[in-house]
Structure formats: C-alpha cells, structure tokens
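ok new one. same drill as before - structure tokens go in, u give me an amino acid for every spot. 51 of them this time. try not to just spam alanines like last time pls lmao
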C-alpha cells in the first residue's frame, strides 16, 4: 500500500501513524503550516483508500 506513495507522502504517514506524532509536531519539525500538514495527510489517506 505504501508503494503508491512518493517519498514526502511516506514521510508524513510514517511520522503521523508509525511515530505517533501530532499534526502540530509534524508542522513544527518540517517547518510547514499546520493546515498544509492536515490537508496533505487527508489527501494521502484518500489516495491510499482509492488505490
């Protein structure tokens, strides 16, 4: 399932689900807006569901 994701998508999923980091922590560590983290994770999950 993760094979359909690009490197950046895998990184977000790993940080959120495997490392248990919150969206806020991911946002701070990657220095990107919180809203961007939320929308990217939402889109990644949708991509995985539809594959």
């Amino acid at each position: 399932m993760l094979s359909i994701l690009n490197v950046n998508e895998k990184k977000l999923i790993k940080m959120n689900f495997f490392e248990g980091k919150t969206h806020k922590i991911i946002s701070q560590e990657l220095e990107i807006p919180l809203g961007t983290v939320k929308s990217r994770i939402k889109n990644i999950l949708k991509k995985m569901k539809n594959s």
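The chain has three helices and no strands. and btw The radius of gyration is 10 Å.
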